[in-house]
Amino acid sequence: MSSLYPIRFRPILKETLWGGTALRERFGKKAKAGAAIGESWEICGMPGASSVVTNGFLKGNTLEEIAEIYMDELLGESVYGKYGNEFPLLIKFIDACDRLSIQVHPDDRLASERHHAWGKTEMWYVIDAAPDAVIYTGFRKKTSKEEYLDHLTGKTLDQLINATPVSPGDVFFIPAGMVHAIGKGVLLAEIQQTSDVTYRIYDWDRLDSRGLPREMHTALALDAINFSLDSNNLIRTEPELNATVLLAESQYFHTSIIRFDRPIIKDYSLTDSFIIYICTSSMAVIGCNGYQEEIRAGETLLIPASADSVTIIPRETATLLEIFVPQKNKTK
Predict the structure, then answer these.
(1) The model's pTM
(2) How confident is the model at residue 34 (pLDDT cuts 50, 70, 90)?
(3) Which residues are catalytic, by number?
(4) Domain range holding 273?
(5) Taking CA atoms, which of 66, 299, 307, 309 is between 20 and 30 Å from 114?
(6) Cβ distance 11 to 53 under 8 Å?
(7) What CATH number did the domain enclosing 79 receive?
(8) How far apart are the first and last CA of the chain?
(9) pLDDT, tens only, 218-266
(10) Residue 34 to residues 12, 22, 128, 211, 214: CA-CA distances in angstroms?
């Protein structure tokens, strides 16, 4: 069996009411001119929406298929032991040309009971933002269900939620149960659990393409919301040149930023997980297991868990997000 290599996937593009053109114009995503593309699913292992490999000897296979064949060689022994063939993360770019609905995601327990699915804890890394752009996360104060429902009925829910002005490089960590929404004029990368379970709470009285209000999930959301989450969960971190700086960590993902202008070698011998790189600026050449692959701004690569070390050579000054699944009692 041939060694695994840096794997590239075909983006899955999603047209939305609130999407824009930045993913095509800035990152070269292959969407038709003028299409309102809100999301590019970069790496996804969900049945029916599994990403397709576009490079190397695995070209044409889905992530689902290669996970079934390569198991812990691709995913890592601990990751495979917990998730089996199911790839545990979903990686996206999101272009919010208009604000998204205010929403919430259930945790693992509730999602399992209701949908036989994982919950959704996620994080956002802001790539670009309009001067007046905001992101909505968490209540401004600890809130009761009664107060929440009063604001929901009165269409003043935004008055109850933190609206944080954002700039490129800002990070938001959003655990399951936190109300949130991306504001207008934000381009970001999203790292999340593999789940598409979203409870829409309020959509700013927006109508869909048929002129109808979109479906709300008021009752389902009520049990999913954690009313004690009263922080905006904004993380501001200054990248250090030629260093790996932690952005956010949970039991589901560990995300760091690497800003570098010279070649570096990353040691993953104790990580026991696949690695995902998201390029947010410039480009780099990434090598492992005797293979090399370029990554440019707006692209994503999956590095197999079998790669004990990875060499990264930048063009000028490049920026990568580095994501893996952390393991208990393991250190990097």
Answers:
(1) 0.96
(2) confident
(3) 200
(4) 243-324
(5) 66
(6) no
(7) 2.60.120.10
(8) 28
(9) 999 999 999 999 999 999 998 899 999 999 999 999 999 999 999 999 9
(10) 17, 10, 20, 20, 23
